[in-house]
């Protein structure tokens, strides 16, 4: 659990202390206000998105939302949605979605994202690329000036075949940025396997990875790479919950 953050209140009343999870919930609930009956909705993955999925389930149960079709971005979200009775479908049946709601690991000033520290980047990218509106929900700790500059991982999903070779090729691409790649492993030490049967290499940068579009293209050109966690120019709305309340920014 991250340290609590303080949310402003009226000058005369004491400040309200909210945990990071409560901030995530505030952002998620705000995003669900954009969901209307009859919509096809992409359901994101992670501790922030799970609040949005729960809220959609709750509103369906209360009859305040009707005829929603959810498109889950991971098996874990699929399971959560099933447990809540949210009707589900997939991209084969619904190739255009009205909107998607999902969290992010980093958000820069241009609304570019790093996603996938939870491991679901490929399905998230497929679903969110098919949306008319993609709402990103974060607490303010996710805001960064440069993607990959936080010292935290930029995930890349790769095929398991000769993963060490692919890891080295990825590091070589960003040798000037001091890039170090690590195979993601479970607590038991075995390789983490995605919903798609692939591995994840987490890339760590000592300095800026440079032009994001060029970095994205270079990664995707490597044979063995399936997808990466940079979501460039995809978000249409970013909802941030933080000390000063909640903000909604549209592109
Ligand atoms: C999962 C993701 C998540 O959206 C991202 O990791 C944010 O997670 P959280 O809301 O738990 O902070 O991309 O693959």
TrEMBL record:
EC number, UniProt record: 5.3.1.6
Top-level taxonomic group: Eukaryota
GO molecular function per UniProt: ribose-5-phosphate isomerase activity
Catalytic reactions of this protein: aldehydo-D-ribose 5-phosphate = D-ribulose 5-phosphate
Classification via InterPro entries: NagB/RpiA_transferase-like (IPR037171), Ribose-5P_isomerase (IPR050262), Ribose5P_isomerase_typA_subgr (IPR020672), Ribose5P_isomerase_type_A (IPR004788)
Family: Belongs to the ribose 5-phosphate isomerase family.
PANTHER family according to UniProt: RIBOSE-5-PHOSPHATE ISOMERASE 2-RELATED (PTHR43748:SF2), RIBOSE-5-PHOSPHATE ISOMERASE 3, CHLOROPLASTIC-RELATED (PTHR43748)
Name the UniProt record assigns to this protein: ribose-5-phosphate isomerase
Organism, as annotated: Nicotiana tabacum (Common tobacco)
